[in-house]
């Protein structure tokens, strides 16, 4: 609660205990565990780097306690909590919807973060998110696997996708069965902005050796798709498309001469996947059926 509010006074009120009692409890915990959970300054307190890791483990303990209470107290335990961080994939959102439909009848606190690649890795490493969704290919795999390993994370393959171009149904190239990078030269290339980690290795889109003359970076899915339509722009991704989320005006066309995308999920190697996490991963399978999306090879949950 202190980490959530950022203030001991406010946390104490929410916990219905006195501030001195809470302060002493934190000091005793830090002493017992031999860790500095909070940095204390004149401006207040903030989580330390060690505290972030400690909090991740603490969340697991609370979640397991909630599972026990849910089972043995007839569903009157704490709110069900689950968080997934992901690149901008429609199937990730659809699976999240299915999860809520199954477990959202009572009280719950679920989060889905469509965010930057580096933040996905950090979220799972700090155990703020149980699962992260991203892709590897020949270009970024060596670098990202090194980062994942250094953060104690494991990558599990979901499926291999042939890169596709997302364009407007009214785009001049919309009638092509396959599109080449040369044909795309005169059109704006749209990509998701990656903040201070805006290197090609963290890109959500397949990196091409071909230099793109017109580049536009955006932060959210809606803006990207509006620009695809309004400017005859394009982006490069997995080819998994959902009309309910992306609209009927966007189509996916295979892109020639690009490396395959290994799309998968990452988890912390010290973290057991919860019942909610397992349900979410099973929900993903429904949206990764190769019969529904040509040009993809589904590899159902195989571990790399």
UniProtKB/TrEMBL annotation:
Residues annotated as domain HTH lysR-type: 1-48
Superkingdom field: Bacteria
InterPro entries referenced in this protein's UniProt entry, alphabetically: LysR_HTH_N, LysR_subst-bd, WH-like_DNA-bd_sf, WH_DNA-bd_sf
Keyword Manganese found: no
Entry GO terms, CC: protein-DNA complex
GO molecular function list: DNA binding; DNA-binding transcription factor activity
PANTHER family in UniProt: HCA OPERON TRANSCRIPTIONAL ACTIVATOR HCAR, TRANSCRIPTIONAL DUAL REGULATOR HCAR-RELATED
Entry's family note: Belongs to the LysR transcriptional regulatory family.
Protein name listed in UniProt: Transcriptional regulator, LysR family
Organism of provenance: [Ruminococcus] lactaris ATCC 29176
